Amino acid sequence: MKAVVVHGAGDVRVEERPVPAPGPGEVLLALEWGGICGSDIGYWRHGATGTATLRHPMILGHEVAGRVAAVGPGVTGVAENTPATVHPAAPVGDTTLPERLAGRTNLLPRVRYFGSAAFDPHTDGGFCEYRTVPAGRLRPLPDGLSTELGALAEPLAVALHAVSRAPAVRGRSVLVNGAGPIGSLLVGALRHAGAARVTAADVAPGALKVARAMGADETCDLASGQELPADMEVVFEASGAPGALGPVLRATARGGRLIQVGNLPGTPAPAALGDLVTREITWSGSYRFVEEIDDALRAMRDGLDVTPVISHRFDLGEAARALAVAADPAAGCGKVMLRLGGPAEGGG
């Protein structure tokens, strides 16, 4: 089978790998679609993302969907050809969370994630034609949902988890700073949750266009000199740019809530944070998700349309070009999708 393998900074190759066989409790997925995430770009551009550093070649990709090609011993209730996506997180060991963190499995200290170099050996991802998956991590798609959209359940789950970290947004005016794929999915998630008005801000006109298509009532083009709106009771920071923190805190109302969704650097970076104290802002982090991937599938089943986020589609053999487009701010792209196999358009 073909697989997208990153060997180091600037070195990604499409290689031949053996087709795996499902073991006990596993299924074999014939993958059809994958979405390129910022972490995939990080491994390709820098050989690292966050605190995870690439030590060996690794198959990229954690936003994937396909169809069940085979079922391993002991697996019941899963039929071949079932369209499905995957919950990409697997806890390591039997760590018990303290009561105050009950149910928040995304905060376990050791979690293996598809396409992650956080541990050695690394965890291969799903940018390949076939991959075995523990049956418990399989998430069948609702009737009528394509595998292309199924591959977007993972990033939509990130957005839904962030919304859950905020006070109830129904009926409120909300600001989303950063309108990349996660920010634009946040716009859709907020509208789905009943937000009265959503403003999206970014430096890229193309990203703002996607945010409008996802339901933003207003957009703020920061590159043209527009300023963030003031006194926003609920704000989501999705850019991950330390330089944005000062203006975002200033845009947050006194006593308001700021949810940090964009990944901030793991190294020191200058940021103006004074308003955090003087305005008594509650600043909360949001990391991956727990089981919101199920909520994401239900939301898409119930009519949340995430297709505006998709801007480019490439075949698996064009993976290097797809990563370059996804990483290019001038490309004005939203979510870049890789066609890993199966039907040509929309994944069926």
TrEMBL record:
Cofactor requirement: Zn(2+)
Signal peptide positions (record): none
Entry keyword set: Metal-binding, Oxidoreductase, Zinc
Pfam family membership, one: ADH_N
UniProt key word Zinc: yes
Family to which the UniProt record says this protein belongs: Belongs to the zinc-containing alcohol dehydrogenase family.
Domain Alcohol dehydrogenase-like N-terminal: 23-143
Name used for this protein in its record: L-idonate 5-dehydrogenase
InterPro entries, alphabetized: ADH-like_C (IPR013149), ADH-like_N (IPR013154), ADH_Zn_CS (IPR002328), GroES-like_sf (IPR011032), NAD(P)-bd_dom_sf (IPR036291)
Source organism per UniProt: Streptomyces oryzae
